Amino acid sequence: MSVIETSSIETLGIEIPAIPEIDAFLLCVTPQAWVDYALKNLDVVLIDHALCEKKAASTAISLMHRYPQYDELLDKMTALAREELTHFKQVINLLRERGITYQNIAPGRYAGKIFKHLRTSELGHFIDALIIGAIIEARSCERFAALVPGLVTQGEVALAGYYCSLIKAEARHFEGYLYLAELYTDEPIAPRVASLLAIEQQLIQSPDTKFRFHSGVPC
Predict the structure, then answer these.
(1) Rounded Cα gap, residues 123 and 121, in angstroms
(2) Residue-by-residue pLDDT tens, the chain, 219 positions
(3) Cβ contacts of 216 within 8 Å, gap of 6 or more
(4) What angle do the packed helices 122-153 and 3-11 form, to 10 degrees?
(5) What is the DSSP letter of 212?
């Protein structure tokens, strides 16, 4: 972040929450090429952001349906689904305010490529799904923070402030998913986390032909 951007953010009273646990968790930061492209294509960013929030709520409900025997999962996923749907409605309102038509757009490769690596055993599949949930929430958190300085520079102060407000929520979801992954297995999850994070890093840093909120380097 440049001195000008830092000064602008402080003057406007916008503070990007520091989430060191996310920085320590992810293996890479968002490439600047993605940030630059996103700032020029905010309509796509917002549409896909809305879709991501809806999908996150759907994933939480799916986990509740598939694993009803886990009380703590039910509690956390109920709260998460409710919050994700609230965020979905907020982004829909932003789209309407901007005159952008909300629509379904084809998903990028990100989630699909990671989920292809789910283990086939029942417990392995379950734990992997929770770990991947944590990874996606962590990346969302990091991307919101990456966008804020450029949004302020472009005069998108309201959107920058909104994205700052989402950072702590996404970090909380990240922590919740990791907590559940550790809770429901007796084996250390660190090796599996490292393996899935390496896949995520490759997707974030490699060229990507379809620009989306979680896509790789635009090409």
Answers:
(1) 6
(2) 332 244 346 556 788 999 999 999 999 999 999 999 999 999 999 999 999 999 999 999 999 999 999 999 999 999 999 999 999 999 999 999 999 999 999 999 999 999 999 999 999 999 999 999 999 999 999 999 999 999 999 999 999 999 999 999 999 999 999 999 999 999 999 999 999 999 999 999 999 999 999 999 999
(3) 31, 34, 109, 110, 203, 204, 205, 206, 207, 208
(4) 90
(5) -
**How many Å apart are CA 144 and CA 147, to the nearest integer?**
5
The H or E element that residue 207 is part of is strand 207-208
- The CATH homologous superfamily for domain 31-102+118-210 is Ferritin, core subunit, four-helix bundle (1.20.1260.10)
Q: Which residues pair with 194 in a beta bridge?
A: none
3-state secondary structure of 206: coil
Tell me the pTM. 0.94
Amino acid at 101: T
> Burial code of 165-195, b = ≥16 C-beta within 10 A, e = fewer?
ebbebbbbbbbbbbebbbebeeeebeebbee
Q: How far apart are CA 156 and CA 56, in angstroms?
A: 25
